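Troubleshooting log. The previous structure file for this entry was overwritten by mistake, so regenerating from the original sequence record. Sequence copied from the archived sheet and checked twice against the printout by T.R.
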Amino acid sequence: MTFASFEDFAESFADLIHKVEGFDARVPEDSALIGLASDIVPEVTRRLREGISLLKEVEAFYDPAKSNVPKPEDEDTLFFIGKMISTELASRDLFDVAFLARNELGAALEKLEKTALARSDGVALASHCESGMRCLRKALVSVESSVYEYEERKAPDRHWVDIELSLQIRKLYWNLRNETEYAAHEDEDDLESRLRRVLYRIMAFRELSIYPFLRVDDRVHLRDLLKRILEWLNSDEREQKIAEQLWADLSSFTELLVQVSRRQELQEFDRELVTRIYQQLFDRVDEPVQGVTPIQLAELEKVLGLDEELDDLICNRIAYVEAWRQTLERVIHQLERPGRSAIKVELLTDDDFG
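Regenerated output below.
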């Protein structure tokens, strides 16, 4: 299909985004069902190819080498020159967004196709299906927004991720890590008690409505840890070395899980919230703030798991304002570090989460 107008793009983006939103790429983590991932591969690859094709059309149509600025009668006017430069810069930005997004989709498609051809790893296949659809949704929403901005139109109100869902998952992972650390402290010399405590926490997680929305890699890893803990607890031998290795694996995994805060959608949310709270506390020109309010503490609870020092301040409900300054400044600086591209489609691969 050749696109001849903005309206063509608007319709195509809306149609493909609707298809992506209506498709559930989640696969059960149970070993007997993980193979179902192969059933959805054709749909995922088809949608990825459609997305790549659409973004190619965006690049071609809004190529900065083309000039769509109507020339006035006096071609030497400053207005025309300024408009031409402005349009070229805007089209370059749009072209770059579409180009980078298309490259990310191409990489996602390549990973999925290679894994599907190998026919050996159901977990990896399920993971690439999930991440491919996430990648596609984000690419489409990002580029669609850029097209509307270039055309000076109001973009549809879309979100490439459910931020509330991401916040709930981070809180879930933070609780698991805390439970693991607490168990290690309380039952330092009793591995059985430690493992039982974490076992109950994982079993409770599996009953939550949010559990199916965890990435399949994380669900599979939690399932395997649960199985290993049960096998050790039900064993007659209960070898100490096995339990020690199991606890080491569990601790490493929970530390890895809290890195969910590195996902782009959470960093953007965290940067906005932490900066806003900092300004409320320290950028007051009329009168100094007397203390951190319960409302502000409740807001800050949404970033639990982002930073250990910040976690301590939140959990201990510190009201003294100056106690927050250094930590908030450091966290804001970290969140604003260069290199975090807003147009990069996937900040982390599923491999980064084990």
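The radius of gyration is 25 Å. Archived copy saved in two places this time.
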